[in-house]
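Service request form, structural biology core

Requester: graduate student, group of Dr. S.
Request type: structure prediction, single chain
Budget code: on file
Notes: please return the result as structure tokens.

Sequence provided:
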Amino acid sequence: MSDISVQVQTGEAGFGDYVALLKPRVMSLVVFTAVVGLLVAPVSVHPVLGMIAILFIALGAGASGALNMWWDADIDAVMRRTQNRPVPAGKVQPGEALGLGLALSGIAVVMLWLAANAVAAGLLAFTIFFYAVVYSMWLKRATPQNIVIGGAAGAFPPMIGWAVATGGVSVESALMFALIFMWTPPHFWALALFMKEDYHTAGVPMLTVTHGRKSTRLHILVYTLLLAPVGIACALSGIGGPFTLAVAVVLNAWFVVGAWRIWQRDEVMAEADKYAVEKAVFRFSLSYLFLHFGAFLGEAALKSYGIGGW
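Core staff response, request fulfilled:
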């Protein structure tokens, strides 16, 4: 870890603090996309087996969060957005976070292997490794491309869910991966535009810090334009249909318009309305992914009645 000091406060950890270590809000997105990957797969899974598999995917995601909080405790302590997390707040000791993360990682991977198959377990193990080691320990502090490359960690869950059902990967699961992968940069860069000082103080080479906000605005537009075809491709694939295509067109059109508005702004305009446009696009980006994956579920439901799909 870097030389930024962690100001440890006295306090006793409660159950909620250990839950917070697992990043439950991030876990909710992981769980949802994994469930969608499992349910839209062409092979049905027994409900009990499916719930068990999702439980261990969630544990794996939580393990990644705990390992990330252990490693990033120094920079979390100086960022307003993260300084109240359990480790920098002194409620959970770094060693406890590390131990919990490692223990949950082992349990999640082994149990998913036993409950489902080796492919799903292998993908989960690689996801944990990628997030904790490749992203947290290396990319995050080394390059402004941290979010671009590191976004792969959050893109694997639907592929894992698909693998639970099918025992492998496919074009459809790869497209779901690509959708999250391409969504991640504009989503986080929109946040970085109004949280720049946090990243600057912590010494994290976010694009806003290394290249400035003007360049970040252009990158948001470019990546959003690249994201839109992926969303349409998902809708035209085996997991899509007319309903999914309609949703994809609306969501991606709105996202592109939002990115265009961000690109047209400068810091004077942004400061004047306290980054209202940037915050609105960031909030929409959260809904974007949930609605896209919700559309996949909706299309699957329509197919079950013989009225969905291509």
